[in-house]
Amino acid sequence: MEDGFYMRRCVELAKKAIGCTSPNPMVGCVIVKDGDIVGEGFHPKAGQPHAEVFALRDAGNLAENATAYVSLEPCNHYGRTPPCTEALINAKVKQVIVGMVDPNPIVASKGMERLKASGIDVVVGVEEKLCQKLNEAYIHRMNTGKPFVTLRYSLSLNGRLLSHLGKGAEEPGGYYSKMLQEYDAIVVSGEFLSRTSTLPISLEAGANQPFQIIIAKNMSSLDLPSTIINSAAQVIVMADKSISVEPKSEKVETVLLEQITLTSVLDYCGNRGLCSLVIDIREDKGSVTELLEGGLEEGLVQKVMIELCPVWIGSSEASLPSFGVEQRKLKDLQSNVTNESTLVEGYLS
Ligand code: AOF
Ligand code: ZN
Q: Coiled-coil stretches, from where to where (predicted)?
């Protein structure tokens, strides 16, 4: 088998921990000897051992003189766990094939240098694009200090902004439910939350619920849906003046920011270790669309996901979106058509 085959297997293994590793990356590792996979592992959660450690344990003595494939450069530092370079050296592997360099400044290339210095053959860049896509949020936060942001909204066939999602989107296996499993936080407006009785939660089996970040700009009171208290989600209300939030709960915290802008929200979230956010737009005029006014121009949104629902809707029910920048194009477009809606996603350059 070619190197790409084993690296794709690493990525497949890494994805078993989707939504569980933040602020750490998802990483997979396989140990190959004489063409056979003799060990496999992935990083399950921050604080737990890294992918290489699980794969080496799985391979046991067979790791000696084997090749290790890892989707991210092995670490060379003592963090929550000891360095993977030492584990690979002690196991006497003869070659390490790496998907991508770790953008974490305390690792960046030092892991590979350490392996090479101990006589291990190192190859880097196999299935690099795939490995980078897997950890686009982690890479973005390492490079900018801010979370990776995806803007999501639903439109009618005549282009109006819908407050509801397409049929099935919120059910298990639906795109929205899967998206919430994957992201660290979802950002919604206080106006939306005070109008609804449900919370955006993931229904995937065993999913970690994202933080619910509620933007309450210029609001002095906020009534949260009572379902918040019974849900697994933690809530952060971001306000720019003193605000009374009901009902009171230890799951709900209020953060006062001097000014609520997309920059101040993202800086706060990045410092708190959140790597990825969905900005969920449910109405045209609200605290969240206001954030976008400057935020889109400043390049603070990386990805856009638009759901086109097969309905026409009148102007009295919904308005055309007023946010957005002139002359911007999405790239790397992907679409998914179902009976109920069409999902289009792409990246802002
Ligand atoms: C690897 N394999 O599976 C992961 C790596 O606090 P720690 O010890 O978990 O270290 C976290 C850092 O280690 C993280 O920021 C990233 O640079 C690297 N993650 N490295 O060799 C893995 N998860
Ligand atoms: Zn490691």
A: none
